[in-house]
Structures are given as C-alpha cells and as structure tokens.
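Form 7-S
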Amino acid sequence: MDQKRIVILGGGESGAGAAVLAKVKGYDVFLSDKSPIPEKYKALLDKYDIEWEEGVHTFDKILNANEIIKSPGIPETVPVMIEIIKKGIPYISEIEFAGRFTKAKMICITGSNGKTTTTLLTYHILKKAGLNVGLAGNVGKSLALQVATENFDYYVVELSSFQLDNMYQFKANVAVLLNITPDHLDRYDYEIQNYIDSKFRITRNQTESDAFIFWNDDPIIRKEIQKLPIKSKRFPFAEQGDNLNAFLDHNHLVVKTSDHEFEVDHISLEGKHNMLNSMAASLSADILNIKKEEIKEALADFQGVEHRMESVKSVKGVQYINDSKATNVNSCWYALQCMTQPTVLIIGGKDKGNDYTEIEQLVKDKCKSLIFLGVDNSKLIKFFSHLEKPWAEAKSMDEAVKIASEMAKDGDTVLLSPCCASFDLFKSYEDRGTQFKECVQKI
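Output:
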C-alpha cells in the first residue's frame, strides 16, 4: 500500500507541530506557507527532514495529498483552499490530527473572552497538584508536537472557533464554554449563528461520562443548550442562581458538585470576569478529583496573563494598563467595568465587524477621552463622536502613548483595550502590548 501523503498549510506553531507528528507516524509530509516561515520552525522541520516551501503554494505538491492539515488562521476563501475543496480533499485541524494519537484526557476551553486566563489558571492548578499535564492550543506548545515528542496524561487546551471548525472525531473529556459574544464575524459570513455553531463544537462527541462546564448567565449559551442533544454531564456556573455547581456566596467562591462542596476565600485575580474564570477552572479541577486545598492554594498564587489587564507603571499619578489582548468589544467591556478612575481609552485596529453599542454607556460613564489607534479610524470616530468626549487619532503606539500622557492627569488611568485585531499596525496583540509597555517606560 502506498504511503499516505499529508500536506500541512501554514508553517507556524500549529503547522510545524502537525508536520513533526505526521513525520514520526510514518506519513509522507509536505508543508507549504504562503508567508515566510519563522527560522525556529524551519530548523524544526529540517531536524525531522520534512520538505517545506515558503512564499508560495505549489499546487502540484499540495493537491496530491490524501489529507490536508490547515492552520486555523487560513480561511476557506483563499485560492489554495478553494482548489482543495473543489478537489474534495479532506482537511482537518492540527488538534483533530493530534487527538488520533493520544489517550490523554483533554480539558478544552473556549469562549469569546477569558480563554487564555482560564486555560493558564486550570493548567496552573493541575500542575501544582502534581498531574502530568501539558499546555496546548492557542497557548503553550503545539498539541501535535507534544503528542509526537512527550507523554502527558492530561492536556489543558485553549481552543479558538477557528480550531474547532475543523475538528470532527476529537473529544473533550472536560469541555468549558465561558461565553459567546459576536467576534470574528468576518470569518462567519457576518452570521452570529455560524459563530455559535462553531463554539458549540466543543461538546461534539462527548458522552455521559464527560463534563460540560458553562456560564449559566450567558443568554446565547442558555438558548442553544435547549436545542442541542448534549450527552455530557452539565456543570453550570454563575454569580447567583439555583442548581449551580459554582457561584458566589457573600463574595466567597463556592464549588459544589455531587461529591464535594468547598469555599474559596482568596483569589489572586481581580474583577468579576476573573471570578467567573476561576469558577470554571475550579470546576475542571474538582471534576478531575484534585483536592480542595490544592485548588484553593493555586487560585491564591496564580500570577495572571500578560497583555490582559496588566498593570504597567504609574507615572505622575497616572496608572497605565495594558489590555492589548482585548481584541473584541466584549473583552473591552470587561476592562471598562473594572475602571474606578477617569480613563483615557486607547482603542482601534482591524475591525472584525464590531458593534460598539455594547461599550457605549461604559465609555460615556468612565472615559474622559478617547484615542483611536489604527490605519482607518472612521468607524470609531463616527460611532463615538456624539458622546462629545475629547478624542485624537494616532498612527503609531509611540504617538498614542504620547497623546495619552498629555490627556491624563494625576488620578487618571490610561487603558489600552483596543476592541480590535492588531494586524493593521502590529504583528500581533502581543507586539501591540509590548510596544505599549516599552513606550510607557520611556515617559
């Protein structure tokens, strides 16, 4: 029988990891990336003697594949994907491929906001409790690379809607759905239901022995649950309510399952959104039979996530906060909710079909001025100008921070919480946040 040919599209963390796993499992492997491949991934591909190309897609070398592994950032509308679909070649995600070769338990986390914090917090609890656990998905190393080169019993996996889209047989033993608000609608034909369907794929293939943890106060989740034949055991959480498995009682987090009930007095993370993230992480750990003392200790000493409500520096009585990870409107809403001082808000970037109505009242109540940071700020100016707040435009982070430092007075906060993707002016939200921090340090 001929050797099965696997072609990987995309030479980043996900694609390179999938290529290594395919190679060690004996497939004929080729990797193609229309953009330049980072040097560290070229070195990894060369180490495993994997053929690759960059800056071009050679269709003859791609369209003879038995199966395609597509990196999550590649839409189905690009020319190479149109040809793959036309030819009927099956295509999957790196997560789907990796799941074929491991029996490890999968704790999978998705949602429009809070994914990274909840994923890292869950991983922190499991690691601190002594479990043999890997961190994968949107954070940590590629799941496929870890399956190829390491041997974990558990994986905590952050999953975007793009990764979920091309998963078919993969199963989450513990599935966590934090919330659903409009995001990435440009990839979903501007139809919210398409995005909702994508998020709920996290429950796909679950059985009665698996767990589904979800925020009970999310109206979209509650409505969708009524429609779907979800077989797994449900673990709802919220601030208040009956029949919840995690909730608040006089500001104490209570975790209550059929086997356990315990209270958490101290959580290192601040803000309502982080209380909800902590509920989800605590439930995941409790379901895996981690002792309550270990859960409590881990919640108390967790350090938080870079670029998410990260305090940078106080200059002349002005606090500067880096929330560059706020790439959608709802994420900015959570950030503004936490503001207790007059705020200079830096907002803008690559718009993904955003509706800014959700933050309109908070901007009105909490912001003293606005800085629009982006290539095209016309939509932002049109939406927010009626609030009659002082505003300015900036075309670089250096310019934005300089304007913010002039607008802010002693007792104010400067908040970078952009609402938008970063790709118009920056390489990534990390690059955007790093530049913000560097500019603040120079003030």
